[in-house]
Design goal:
This protein has six helices and 18 strands. By secondary structure, it is α/β, with parallel strands linked by helices.
């Protein structure tokens, strides 16, 4: 019946660590049992001496694993990457793209749609995280400058259509021309907007917040901070992450 009783370990719960047995059925937590108490014999005992028992990790930003990248054309790249993360405890995964040319970007979206239909891994995929290509060359970081560009409505509409609703998050720079219209269209499609690789000042980030941006990608990395303009100190994306109360930040 695919039922297990995990005992002998330390269970991590929302309230702290507990010395209890964990009951699982069909991959879902059924409850707890005090050590030594009698439960249904249908639960197969699994001894976990000295181990921590926790819910699976949720990884909302990663580019591959197990020697594979989500931008690879290899048909099994997704499977290998997901298996590598499962082996280390991440059970819910949001694959992330890189800034690339138009053809490669479209291909990456198609690959995700195919992976999301793969019965081996589909239950592990939360949705696709697009990173770029509409980001600032001044904050390119590891992104290749030749693949960065301003917002192209024809391109991103085609991407949203091809994704079939699978894009959960899109990381872009709000100061790049065309960001406001993109934000309107993307949010209507249910995409979470995130600021990334951005050289924006605080005023621009505040506008982006009004457009629907509620997240900042890899906080502190590849983003503007305080600069001097006309003798005044002007805050950047980094300071906006602290200043805007309802702005979430991602720390890697």
């Amino acid at each position: 019946m695919n039922q297990y009783r995990l005992f002998g370990g330390t269970v991590l719960t929302p309230d702290g660590m507990a010395q209890q047995d964990l009951l699982l059925k069909a991959g879902k937590i059924q409850g707890f049992a005090a050590p030594g108490t009698v439960v249904s014999p249908d639960y197969v005992p699994v001894d976990c001496p000295g181990l921590y028992i926790s819910p699976g990790f949720v990884d909302i930003h990663q580019h591959g694993g197990g020697g594979s990248d989500y931008m690879d054309s290899d048909s099994d790249a997704y499977f290998r990457a997901v298996q590598a993360h499962l082996a280390h405890g991440a059970t819910s995964i949001m694959p992330t793209t890189l800034a690339a040319g138009r053809e490669a970007t479209a291909g990456a979206v198609k690959k995700y749609v195919q992976a999301a239909a793969d019965p081996r891994i589909r239950d592990r995929l939360l949705g696709l995280h697009m990173e770029g290509p509409y980001i600032s060359p001044a904050q390119a970081g590891a992104q290749k400058p030749e693949h960065l560009r301003i917002f192209d409505e024809g391109e991103y509409r085609a991407i949203l259509e091809a994704a079939e609703g699978s894009i959960r998050r899109w990381s872009v720079a709000p100061e790049v021309p065309g960001a406001e219209k993109f934000a309107k269209i993307a949010t209507e499609k249910g995409v979470t907007l995130s600021i990334a690789h951005s050289d924006a000042d605080l005023e621009t980030v505040e506008r982006a917040f009004r457009w629907g941006f509620r997240h900042i990608t890899h906080f502190y990395s590849c983003m503007s901070t305080i600069t001097r303009k006309g003798g005044f100190r002007v805050p950047g994306v980094l300071e906006a992450g602290y200043y805007l109360e309802d702005m979430d930040v991602e720390i890697i």
